[in-house]
Amino acid sequence: MKKIPIIPLIICGIFTIALAIVIASTIVLKKTELVHEKAQLRGKFKDRFGATFVGSETCKKCHERTFLEWKTSLHSRMMRDVKLDPLANIGDFESPDNIRTFTKEDIAYTLGSQWKQQYLKKEGEDLIVLPAQYNVTTGQWKPYLPDKPDKRSWFNECAGCHATGVDPEKKTFVEMGVSCEACHGPGGNHVEAVPGYEIPTIIQARRLTPAQAAQICGSCHTRGRDKTGKYAYPVDYQVHKGEANMRLFFKEARPDNGDESKYFWPSGESKYSNQQYLDWKQSQHAKVGVVCVTCHNVHRATSTLVSTGDGGGPGFLDAIISKTRLFEDRLCKSCHTTVQYRSVHKIHTFGSCVACHMPRAATIGEAGDSRSHTFRFMYPQASLKAGGVDKQPNACSRCHHHKDTPVEALIGFVEAAKKNDMPKPFIVHQKP
Question: 233-269, pLDDT tens digit by residue?
Fold first, then answer.
């Protein structure tokens, strides 16, 4: 019997297998192309222009982890419906109080929960801010804007920074609280993006210039009026974040501008809450591109409760640093490194960067519970010139004032510490 050659059979087998692989690969690639073509047909948008608001629950479908972090953050709880969430109301309505002139039943929504809480009442299609606020840290009721007795329309004065997708003309909003689209812009185009164009259809602060990134936070952490003068927030900017210059939509308050100077201390630092952006713009950080998200992780759910010793005595926990990427001094020193401490820093090596460079100079609920964001050292000379700490706070008195240290003595301490490490003549280094 004649033997069948082995080698031709092997070659034939290899060829058959290779052919089968080619045919199978072609079929798979063809199916992939068809799937891709169908996906291309599903996508509609390649940019974010003309996008509409879709709500954070839509964002959750792809970004669940980030959504859950945000959901337990203060931003998400900025505004709450008391009918859906009765425990949102943390004010003391049991104890009698002459300042509070309304009842629990009057309230439709609450605003805030960390420092203070304010309350909204429905009047027709409008929402009115009720005339008293509950200060959380002291447990006291305080008048809300006692110098403005007229009814305060929430849609005109507050809505853009407490809700997302606000239309003040129609008196509507898409979602309560500062949600995903409050910072990332309307997500309608992102949801229906052409595959491969997801990034250009949504705003990401880290992809913007420092000024554009800071303006996103600054659209709420500021004070002023929109260009029409009707609204206390940049209404039209909310759908153009990351694209446009907020200055074209909003007139910011300035310390050197007539009646607006009442919102600032003589030194230029902010006197009232939610003006961090206005402080930051005066800072060296702004000039070199250090922005809000450099220090703050806005998706982080918790605040860090720390003892800084900058008021209230030993062990007094008085610093809540919201959403910082590192703990207090570690954050500052991650950029500001030094071989040795000199001048005033030599006598405060035990202290805190933020106690001196971010003193509590502004008011959220009670006087002095919000930090300055100019990052400037607030000199005691300014308090002396203004006529006292109550007219102009300074960084030194925040710690030393409870010991009745005179401002003049604090000036002497600062100047002596500086003089010790400076060449002669010292007079050229004195603070004017």
Answer: 999 998 888 888 999 999 999 998 888 999 999 999 9
- Residue 366 has which token pair? 């009670």
Helical (H) or strand (E) element with 370: strand 370-371
From the list 267, 274, 216, the residue with the least C-alpha distance to 240 is 216
Please say whether the beta carbons of 386 and 430 come within 8 A: no
- Positive or negative torsion for Cα 388, 393, 397, 403: positive
Structure tokens given for 64: 């669940």
- What does the alpha-carbon distance between residue 205 and residue 296 come to, in Å, rounded to a whole number? 12
Q: Which residue in this structure is represented by tokens 């992780």?
A: 297
- Euclidean distance between CA atoms 34 and 32, whole angstroms: 5
Domain ranges across the chain:
56-263, 290-429
Amino acid at 348: H
The residue among 86, 135, 136, 126 whose CA lies nearest residue 144 is 135
Where do the DSSP E strands lie in 291-363?
Answer: 303-306, 319-322, 360-362
CB-count burial class (<10 Å; 0-12, 13-18, 19+) for 22:
exposed
**DSSP one-letter code for 5:** P
Measure Cα distances from 142 to 31, 410, 425 in Å: 67, 33, 52
- Tell me the mean pLDDT in the region 325-349: 78
CB 277 within 8 A of CB 214: yes
- Does the pLDDT value for residue 319 go beyond 70? no
Distance from C-alpha of 423 to C-alpha of 116, rounded to nearest angstrom? 49
CB contact set of 248 (below 8 Å; sequence gap of 6+): 227
Cα separation, 262 vs 241, in Å, equals 29
CA distance 279 to 332: 17
Whole-model pTM: value is: 0.81
Residues 381, 411 contacting (CB under 8 angstroms): yes
What whole-number distance in Å separates Cα of residue 254 and Cα of residue 259? 9
Report residue 262 as tokens. Answer: 């009442």
Place of tokens 């002596």: 416
Q: What is the mean pLDDT of residues 411-421?
A: 75
Q: Is residue 126 helix, strand or coil?
A: strand
Cα–Cα distance, 422 to 428 (Å, whole number): 10
Eight-state DSSP code of residue 403 = G
The answer to whether 158 and 220 are in contact (CB under 8 A) is: no
Q: What is the pLDDT of residue 290?
A: 94
Q: Residue 174 is which amino acid?
A: V
Note the pLDDT tens digit of each residue in 55-70. Answer: 999 999 999 999 998 9
